[in-house]
Amino acid sequence: MNKKTIRDIDLQGKRVLMRADLNVPLKEGVITDDTRIRAELPTIRYILDQGAALIVLSHLGRPKGKVKPELSLKPVAERLAELLGQPVKMAPDCVGAEVEAMAQALKPGEVLMLENTRFHPEEKKNDPEFARQLASLGEIFVNDAFGTAHRAHASNVGVAHYLPTVAGFLMEKEIDFLSRATENPERPYIVILGGAKISDKIGVIRNLMGKADKLLIGGGMANTFFAAQGLEMGDSLVEESAVETARELLEAAGDKLILPVDAVIADAFSEEAQRRVIPVGTVPPGWRILDIGPKTVERFAAALRGARTVVWNGPMGVFELEPFAQGTFAVARILAELPDAITIIGGGDSASAVKKAGVADKMSHVSTGGGASLAFLEGKVLPGIAVIEDK
Ligand code: ADP
Ligand code: MG
């Protein structure tokens, strides 16, 4: 990676301001999944071990620029304290005189959590004065918030204009793995795309189509390609506005693009629906495709044999409903068992599908950023990465 990280800068005795993505799911004030907090522990421990005082910045939920007590980062600070095994001080805000005094008083090895940056409307506007106030709390800025890197906000981009800026370990890992999919991938390089819509992923398809050796398409997205081939799709999800684009992509990709050969259809969008496996062709009226079929799984397995790099974005079916999760889980298991491949999972639903399949730890990398990983795979310059100093 050509960006500076916390290894490239002297942190000893410094006040380090770190932007993390601690936007965890909460239910009535209780954290239901602390993955994002755990993901920051290596960076936090390293900074503290270097003899720095640490000030942590994050947003949480969508308070829309107003103070919403139920979106306080206090429970996150408490959970972080448990995981670190040391106290974490909680600031009443992220800017202002009281917070400045707390930051000034912080000693090496101590941690201060600032309050939700999105309590201020200036955060999402990337207001320069607000960014300057945040920056005044520290001497070095560490951006480890990959999940927010596709947004230019004050706490991840604005701050960087006032302080030396380096990446944390999570940011480094995300850039490291995702760039193996976009720059000089080891070949054969196979891209698997699925999910609901082509229009969400059109940028990813266009960017990766040229780089990949094969493009396997499943999920709802495949329906629109079938519609472009003139097939009747019954009540399947088809994106009429993207049929023309699908036709162009089919033409441009040639035999690189591999579509399902069979499908699981259902007579309702429900776990209790009647189900049938059909070869791809006409879907009867009132029925819809909700998963790829077993022959398609075999075909995809064959296409993946010998792969050295695999990127997967988008589930193969409606995996949220158990009867239609088999295709997605089968593909997850195939990836988990590839002997020599770097396997990279991007996208929020894809990450949860791989977790649900029980094979997340068998993947080389499961991205922590849904929207950010898609923007990266589209080949976009992410503003939160652009502000990190080059080596
Ligand atoms: P990611 O978050 O990984 O980028 P998407 O958000 O693009 O993935 O797609 C995930 C959604 O696609 C899931 O909610 C899933 O139910 C839906 N989906 C997958 N296959 C189908 C299908 N055949 N019909 C309708 N929806 C589908
Ligand atoms: Mg999604």
Describe the fold and architecture:
The chain has 391 residues and is of the alpha/beta class. The chain folds into two domains: 164 residues, 3-Layer(aba) Sandwich (Rossmann fold); 201 residues, 3-Layer(aba) Sandwich (Rossmann fold). It is 35% helix and 16% strand. The protein is built from 16 helices and 17 strands. The chain has a six-stranded parallel β-sheet with strand order 5-6-4-1-7-8, with helices on both faces. A hairpin with a 2-residue loop joins strand 2 and strand 3. Helix 10 packs across helix 11 and helix 12 packs parallel to helix 13. It is elongated. Adenosine-5'-diphosphate binds next to helix 10, strand 14 and helix 14. Adenosine-5'-diphosphate (ADP) binds next to helix 10, strand 14 and helix 14.
List keywords for this structure.
391 residues, alpha/beta, Rossmann fold, six-stranded parallel sheet, 16 helices, 17 strands, elongated, binds adenosine-5'-diphosphate, binds magnesium ion
Give me the secondary-structure topology:
Layout: E1 15-19, E2 26-27, E3 30-31, H1 35-39, H2 41-49, E4 53-57, H3 74-84, E5 89-90, H4 97-105, E6 111-113, H5 121-125, H6 128-135, E7 140-143, H7 154-158, E8 165-167, H8 169-182, E9 189-193, H9 202-209, E10 214-217, H10 219-228, H11 243-253, E11 257-258, E12 262-266, E13 275-279, E14 288-292, H12 294-304, E15 309-313, H13 326-336, E16 342-346, H14 348-356, E17 365-366, H15 370-377, H16 383-386
Helix pairs in contact: 10-11, 12-13
The structure holds adenosine-5'-diphosphate and magnesium ion.
